[in-house]
Amino acid sequence: KIYLNVHNRFMRFMSDSSYWIYIIHLPIIFALQYRLMDKDWSLLTKYGATMGVTLAVGALSYLLLVRWTPIGWMLNGRR
């Protein structure tokens, strides 16, 4: 059975935002790692928090600052 041959809005959004998130993820990760450096959390907790916050900030910034602007048109083409 094929699951990926139907239109999925979430996957389309992630596909469109992936390059933007790739571009901005390093400064976000560096800032978060610096803030979490002295916390007594487990490695997996720090990793999960860093990845979750990075993905959330990247997706939100894409939605609010990029998607419907000329930057979004350059990254994904006009709709």
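(the above was protein one; protein two follows)
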Amino acid sequence: MAETSKKQGGRGRTRNYATVLYPESAPPKWREKLEAEHVRALISPLHDRDINPDGKPKKPHWHVLFVFDNVKSMEQAKTLAKKIGGVGCEAVNSVRGYARYLIHADNPEKAQYSANEVVSVNGADFLDLTTLPSDKYKAIGEMLDWCVANDVLSYGELLMYARANQQDWFRVLCDSATMVMKEFLKSQQWEREQTIRNQ
């Protein structure tokens, strides 16, 4: 639910809004203009593979999520959207839900986009806004599969790969999964040594 201002009687003010931009109508240096406003924001990857219900492709576009520090009126949010060439403006009831929508994380029937391509502006943190407890276990499963598929036994190699290529893995490793992955890699090494000894 949108966070509203008690002073305003809870009407028409919230912290989070979103707009859509089209490459052909976005003004030059629109991202720099957004940065200059000092408002935290997330910019989706270019949605260039979306399909309309009639089967025709949608026009390529970006979704931009504004995350204000204080509640703002729709008029204030529209002013910011217009400055960067945004088309329309909507109040966002769930910042986590909308941030996940930037890559269609919860819409498997839609084109999927990479979290690594989400642009964070003025300190907005995509992973912090979107991570669910279940995502940690998914990331651990992906890391296990990657280590097996790529014959990786070194925790250092996994950590450096995650840092460079998979920010969600890197965060999980730094926050809580180091012991699990170290034990897994250690057991893989032990199993390999046993196989060599028994040959």
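Reviewer note on protein two: Strands lie at 13-21, 40-43, 62-73, 87-91, 119-121.
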